[in-house]
Specification:
single chain, mainly beta, five-stranded antiparallel sheet, four-stranded antiparallel sheet, 1 helix, globular
């Protein structure tokens, strides 16, 4: 499923562009993009989006808060830190502007691998 348009999904707010300290490109081709996602204790990501559906493999899930473009707190994807054992995989739809903030007293940061599917073809 390709993104719809640059107005709905501004390129300058793509995760790799808007939050490069927290998203590292591991692989990309015409059909998918694989990102390493890290957010350290006490850190808040820059506001960004993910315009494609994805599979998120959560490797480390501390207590964190998730915010929308207006600064309102929204439920984190995948439940709470006490949700099923890690690692775990979550299917996610495209995600509008958001930013997560890991608690300063968290024992570790957030760690994950996001596989974004640019097309519906495998």
């Amino acid at each position: 499923m390709p993104k719809t348009n640059d107005t709905e999904w501004p390129p300058h707010l793509d995760a790799l562009v808007a939050a490069p300290a927290n998203h590292r490109l591991l692989f990309e081709d015409d059909t998918m993009r694989v990102l390493e996602v890290t957010v350290e204790p006490g850190e808040r990501e820059n506001l960004h989006h993910h315009c494609w559906p994805s599979l998120m493999v959560v490797l480390a899930r501390p207590d964190y808060r998730n915010f929308d473009a207006d600064g309102n707190e929204i439920p984190p994807s995948g439940g709470t830190p006490t949700s099923p054992a890690l690692p775990r995989a979550l299917r996610l739809p495209p995600q509008r502007l958001h930013a997560i903030e890991v608690a300063a007293d968290a024992p570790h940061g957030f760690r994950g691998i996001r596989v974004e599917f640019k097309t519906s073809e495998p």
